[in-house]
Fold this sequence. Notes:
The structure is a homotrimer. By secondary structure, chain A is mainly alpha-helical. The first copy, chain A, has helices at residues 6-53, 59-85, 120-141, 148-170, 175-178, 187-205, 225-245, 252-281, 286-301, 309-332, 341-359, 368-396, 403-408, 410-415, and strands at residues 212-213, 216-217. Chain A has a single domain, classed as Orthogonal Bundle (Ammonium transporter fold), CATH 1.10.3430. Chain A has a two-stranded antiparallel ribbon. In chain A, helix 7 packs parallel to helix 9 (286-301) and helix 8 (252-281) crosses helix 10 (309-332). The longest helix of chain A is centred in the first third of the chain and has 48 residues, at 6-53. Chains A and C meet through helix 1, helix 2 and helix 3 of A and helix 1, helix 7, helix 8, helix 9 and helix 10 of C.
Amino acid sequence: MQNNTMTDVMAAAVKAQESADYAQFMINNLWILVAAALVFIMHLGFATLEAGFVQKKNVVNILFKNSMIIAIGLMTYCLSGFNLMYPGFAEGSSGYFAFAGFGLTPPEGGMTAEYADYTYWSDFIFQAMFAATCATIVSGAVAERIKLIPFLIFATLFVAISYPITGAWKWGGGWLDAMGFYDFAGSTIVHSVGGWAALAGIILVGPRAGKYTKRGIRPIQGHSMPLAAIGVFLLFFGWFGFNGGSVLSADPELVSLVFVTTAMAAAAGAIGAFFTSFIMFRTYDLSMVLNGILGGLVGITAGADIMSVTDSIIIGLIAGIIIPISVTMFDKLKLDDPVGATSVHLACGIWGTLAVAIFGDCDDCGTYGAQITGIIAIGVFTFLFAFILFFILKVTLGIRVHEDEEETGLDIGEHEMAAYA
Amino acid sequence: MQNNTMTDVMAAAVKAQESADYAQFMINNLWILVAAALVFIMHLGFATLEAGFVQKKNVVNILFKNSMIIAIGLMTYCLSGFNLMYPGFAEGSSGYFAFAGFGLTPPEGGMTAEYADYTYWSDFIFQAMFAATCATIVSGAVAERIKLIPFLIFATLFVAISYPITGAWKWGGGWLDAMGFYDFAGSTIVHSVGGWAALAGIILVGPRAGKYTKRGIRPIQGHSMPLAAIGVFLLFFGWFGFNGGSVLSADPELVSLVFVTTAMAAAAGAIGAFFTSFIMFRTYDLSMVLNGILGGLVGITAGADIMSVTDSIIIGLIAGIIIPISVTMFDKLKLDDPVGATSVHLACGIWGTLAVAIFGDCDDCGTYGAQITGIIAIGVFTFLFAFILFFILKVTLGIRVHEDEEETGLDIGEHEMAAYA
Amino acid sequence: MQNNTMTDVMAAAVKAQESADYAQFMINNLWILVAAALVFIMHLGFATLEAGFVQKKNVVNILFKNSMIIAIGLMTYCLSGFNLMYPGFAEGSSGYFAFAGFGLTPPEGGMTAEYADYTYWSDFIFQAMFAATCATIVSGAVAERIKLIPFLIFATLFVAISYPITGAWKWGGGWLDAMGFYDFAGSTIVHSVGGWAALAGIILVGPRAGKYTKRGIRPIQGHSMPLAAIGVFLLFFGWFGFNGGSVLSADPELVSLVFVTTAMAAAAGAIGAFFTSFIMFRTYDLSMVLNGILGGLVGITAGADIMSVTDSIIIGLIAGIIIPISVTMFDKLKLDDPVGATSVHLACGIWGTLAVAIFGDCDDCGTYGAQITGIIAIGVFTFLFAFILFFILKVTLGIRVHEDEEETGLDIGEHEMAAYA
């Protein structure tokens, strides 16, 4: 070593620095990928949750829709969605709409200086796993009476056009981002977007036959509580990737905080729903507790990276309280939602976005004005888009199965197959 | 570069070192988080395993309990459990009991010099996921006849008080740690703790109606073997996080060894149970093989980081042999355990803890004396705590459902809902 | 710092470099372990997929087989398979067969210079999780009529001998590797190997009673589409580890590309099967879409690290188109495969291996000659091995259950137990 010149030594230090930086890049990138896989498993969570909450005669149909939605989501996001959501708005752009062109255009080796923390491919796959989520939310809400093909057309166009446009307003650096709207992992951008579209679908497709009768609301029980519970636990599991991956790096402080706030909000959601549903219905209602967990998760999603543990518990608790109230309210309005998707994703999505303004305590945490603007702007756009699209489908292909088919079940009607032989 | 001074170059080397250290911190921390997520999914494993092993009429109840247990576990561990289990015993303390106060008190940014390998938040969430496990074990053992609310009260107090106190004796640096007791990931501290409480509950709640008749033991079959199998595979999957994460870093040598010993013990457990149950019952008994896998996993847990592959296979094999023998023995004693939790978690938990003394080959691997002391001390404390608590609940609220309700099923009785509509 | 000598500074730079290199080693190793856990969960995927596709009366049997296969796979791979598949062919060896001895022989600390990116243990456990896969594939194809014990003997010998020998030809650095055969993660080495053995089994065990009647082919519906769907989603999830881990490091560029090609091929597989099965059968066939996803995954497996996104979509789409055609063809040939394993793993495994020659665009991407040689050589060896082994079992123990048992179901016949009480 005595013969090392100063230049040699500096070169060794620089190389060591590069190796260390590359190690950090590797770990950041790997976390985005693992998180993408966790978000993927949420699609199984949705599939089983929805399958559990529908009647036995409509199970093949819901599984079919969920299997196709993930496929459609990945394909459309690859074809256009990614470039519509992350268009790289031109400087001075108003940030409402831009499109970076069809297909994926990875930089050399899938990496670029822009991606200090992960590759182009990791960015795409993580975002693509998110994209299909909003369509899945709709799937559950309109289950048991919507026609398959119109629904799949809806899902394709909704994921291809509506979701990325509103997503770009914030995550693509658009106008909502510029005005300070805060939505960490998508209480609004993903969940309430799914919820608004679900609401539009519910209004246009109408309630299931026999649900709202002259003698009152007839509960239509889901056919398998184990499937529903499997769904909720898998969604909880996947949410560690959904929220944890949204840190967009493996930053130890942030990712671990996000794990804690996410889990505590879910736990508090269960407890909020437990007590509220007992007070309201005088029974220990499993579906309320399950949806309470999901409500807590949706509620924390907008601010999972900025909340204290106490905040996250309060947010989750309120989300859990919202669930049975919201489910009851939607039922009173004769808006029939077999899985409670509007309560979980729309009501708690709005709540979580507002909670950022209430509890958030940082410079860019979203004022009331910014949060409400975001909720309304994205809500109006999404609801109108979904309503018009469902309406066009209604007057052209029709969106509702024949009443005989509804009676017999969509499994035989659409798929000539029973879920349980 | 010619103009670099010695000081510049040293600063570059120091900065490179810091970046490399931070990269290691990132990866260690990420592994604890991923492991926490894996331990979380074990709760779905328990939920489906127990649901599968109970009768159709009690499925909603078991799912409800498991959904609430994870919520209660996270909440109580956050409120007091974490600070009771890791109180930081004062120097010179006897190491039996200390409490660091209510709520979480993270250092600035969630990190501190104490946590060289992971953040405060990661530490909490990983440990919190463990905490609820012991209550889940009880849930299965007393299933199909215990009242919901008394059980939830039991679970809350057990997780809040009993589990952290005995846990502190070893993992919190208490008196068992000082005397050389070795329990890597919790054969005793988690599994037999759950098992002892389960035993206390079984004794006090009594067997299910019709199980032990004058004409002998009537097997009460579980209602869904697919659910049970899903549970076991998910538990196996999650155990990679349970044991692997207990290394408390991403240390390549240790974590990969732990993966191997864990998997091999599980495999050997299946094979041990396969042969033993065939010899005993002359049939190929799926529930024995499934519990054999779990027995192998519980057995290796105390020493997963110090065993050779051969050791791990022997430990798993013996655990698998224990399962059918233990199940038969508990049945002969008229201790009715619908899911075999006492055999899996108590019998194999004790076995695994003893195995450390038998096979362990390192300086701090636990002598027979230390291991037996730990087993007995934790066993006595836990059994008494659980027995007294269940007893108080029995004479106040009552812990057993009415025999009509047991006949009809707890799903209708406690939840006014059937698992399968 | 002024007192630092040149030697001190260089030592600091060297130490920083070592720390950075170790950080990279940690992350590479951790990814292999996480990937191994993901491949493990594929065994639950297979178990639920196969359980869903068989009749209610044979569910315990299929779960039993799958539980034992993972145990047998791990044990035999530990005993001999690993050293047969990675024997370290001697220089100048013809690369057909070598054996490095029984048991595992880890280097000091489980690590060696040979394992720059991961430990010996990680290498073993990742490969061991793969090994059992090929037996699982057979399990589904011969379900509902094969005797349990002969099947388990078959599985043991197949995993212990046949799979590692052909695997060594490529992944162990044998003759197929030398001639340029390319199979990234095992379209041929794992999937078609399972498929060929399945075909041999199907031929020798014969179709299920009542499947091929004088009045034509009678479809025998699977008993639970939710279980089948759970299986496919879990397999998709696990495939991120199967293909992503096969990079054998956490290389950001390659692993993230593999995630994208894997997911896109699966999505395209669903879409290909959707349209093709609609054209062929005029219905929306859930089992075809589910198998289309799996077909796409098998198809991309041979070249997941070298394909463009467009390539991966085309490969998946064609795999999806193959599925209903292949299923129909096997049925026409009266080769009865309850789960479609031959179509998914054999037909699409061959397709994926050929696709490397068609789409591959790199120096070592496998010529048509090399790919076809590999497909045929491994196919012939595997088929003959499996055929002879099944044949010996047939003439000795018998491989088919009695027709009464087939009628009643294997659950009662072999296990004295019903899947659903």
